[in-house]
Amino acid sequence: RARVDFDGSAARTSGQMRLDAAGVSGRGALLGRTSLAGQWAIGPETRFQGQLNGDNLRLPGRDPLAGLRSGAAGTPVAPLAAKLADAVERAGAGNRISTTLALVQKGGVGSLAITNAALDARSGARIAIAQGGQMTIAWPGKAAGVDWALDGAITADGGGLPRAALRLARRPGGGFGGELFVDPYAAGDARLALDRVRFTADANGATRFRTAMRLDGPLPDGRLRGLSLPINGRIAANGAVSVNPDCVPLSLVEARYGNFALGQTRQTLCPVGGAMIAMGPGGVSGGVAIRQVDFAGRSGDSPMRLTADDARVLLGKSGFALANPALTIGPQDAPVRLTAAAMDGAMTRNGFAGTLKEAGGQIGTVPLIVEQGAGEWRFADGTLSLKAAMTVRDSQAQARFKPMSVPDFALTLKDGRIAATGTLTAPGKGARVATVDIAHDLSRGAGYANLNVPDLTFDGALQPEDLTPLTLGVVANVRAKVTGDGRIDWTGDKLTSTGTFRTDNANLAAAFGPVEGLSGEIRFTDLIGLVTAPGQQVTIQSVNPGVEVRDGVVRYRLEAGQKVRIEGGGWPFSGGQLVLLPTTMDFSADVDRYMTFRVIGLDAGAFIQAMELDNVSATGTFDGIMPLIFNSRGGRVAGGVLVARQAGMEPLLMPEGVLPTIPCDPTKIGGTLSYVGPVSNEDIGVMGKVAFDALKNLQYKCLTILMDGALDGEMVTNVVFNGVNRDRLGAAPGGLARNFIGLPFIFNVKIAAPFRGLLSTAQSFIDPSSLVQGEIAKQAQEKMRDEGAQPLAVQPLESDKAINREP
């Protein structure tokens, strides 16, 4: 609708006009109800001066802030982005523009002066040319169709918009440049301050700008303070915005996230995907990469350091990734260390969450390292949590246990306290070994680890060497159940550990023979060092190094350096005692280990009955000593001695480490020996038969056995005894038979045979038929032929010299 009033002549006409329109559009902008009113004149020059008013200016389909709110969610600028998006939206929902226009044109040359221009929104927002300012558009232009100039500034304020002032200047050759002054913009906990923004716009409508910002803002359960960053950006003709296509320095005063705080630092930021920030109709994209990350800060009251080879933050996706991140928390001499080969994450509703690969770590000086972890992490409500499948190993170079799987490792870090749990399982076996419960206070550098062994079963599927190398070559074929608890406590670099473990009725194979029914409880005063208090005790139903002994007790202690101190032990043994003497065995290296048994009061008759030896009977009591040496190649007897105790003598307690002097009183009796078993069918000669006849009823005075050799190999046994035949020898020539009654015999025999293939140590002297058959027969016969019937002793020429003192 238009109304025009005019008055004048052909030379000059003037009047008033008013144009009203329901809407006006142009260059993508829409203006609702619009009116133009003023005075006009047409003559030598054309003039118009009036007022333009319109309602509800908007830019449909061209919203440069589209996606800003969602794209910035969870970032420090989120409150600012939300405030700005709301302000623009509310300003577009109801506004009115007004301006004063003054147009002059003469001879193809003209100008349009715009003053008092303003956009006022119901929200309180106002964008205007400052009071006294003017924008002038003139034609024809020098380089373009028109020229323009701005005297004063365009200002913005109110309605949630940042307070700003824009100054523009035309550039020679087209386009324009200018400066933008923006007051610090705040919303909630966020505050953005910009240095003076300098910009240029080319003739095609693209604008470049440069400034520097300082940002404070919230993080999920935290805050960012003093983030300073240069900004170099571009606004395309279609409204798309890109910021920082090149690397720039970043400085930070503090970033706090939950209980974590990063201190003042300076890093170099580089763009990901062409620009750090890209905004357009499709939303927000871009990203930031930091090389050689190195942040120092605090976790609660504890010092903290975060490093990584590379860090990337992706906008729009709210994701980030770190390569080889390493986090240390606590004092430098005993920090908590958490590492990973790769870590990624993204923003969630309450914080962040992501995954870890090749994760690991260690708490202070605790000699346990977790590694090879793969799982998920989460940070929400001030709590960092981790769930992963891990491996735990000994931190010492010479590991005391093999790496174990922890399929259910879980860790939380909140308020400066770490809590972790997990189940230790045997490597490659899946058998549950123990459950672990760990707590650590970062502020004090103190914590504990509880280990519970509810029911560890050793059987055909699992053996101790599957868990620790310390038992390899010491025990094997273990059938046992172990239960117990351990605890490790630490404060700084000081560490203590205790534990109590027990087993009942265990069976195993040791270097000295099979063990059955081993039961006992062990109390560690240093669980990590495998050290116990004195007086540990186990009971043993049966041990068989070649001769079975039953119902024994062993007292011991474990000492530092993988040493076992045997305090003593004993077994009832065929009417006497088998006593284990004190010794120390070193299991830290492949060295000889020594055990010495003392035999006291062994009853020959009881021993024969226990061994179920037919055709043999004997009386007598024996004392002795049995030194054993064990190493990785097995066990052996080194200088074993058994001696028959003569009537009326005290027990012979032989010293360790020296060959004892064995007394033999020819006037005293030691015992009797009778062998009535079959004799070999081989031709052993007359004197061989004489020897066997003598053994049918022999009263010995002195008897000694010396042993040397491997328990699982060849044992060299020297059997020496003398005695008096108490019966007629049927094998002797008729005229001599009665002369052999009551005369002495000396037996001195050396045997080399597998120890466990012999009947037993004692049997070798109680049942000597196999000894004399092959060793003395031929030589005895030859001597009888040469010397006649004079000698009454059966002593082979090749036998060893008797150690008994009786001639």
UniProtKB/TrEMBL annotation:
Residues 777-807 are annotated as: Disordered. This is Exoprotein. The lineage of its organism: Bacteria, Pseudomonadati, Pseudomonadota, Alphaproteobacteria, Sphingomonadales. Residues 798-807 have a biased composition (Basic and acidic residues). It comes from the Bacteria.
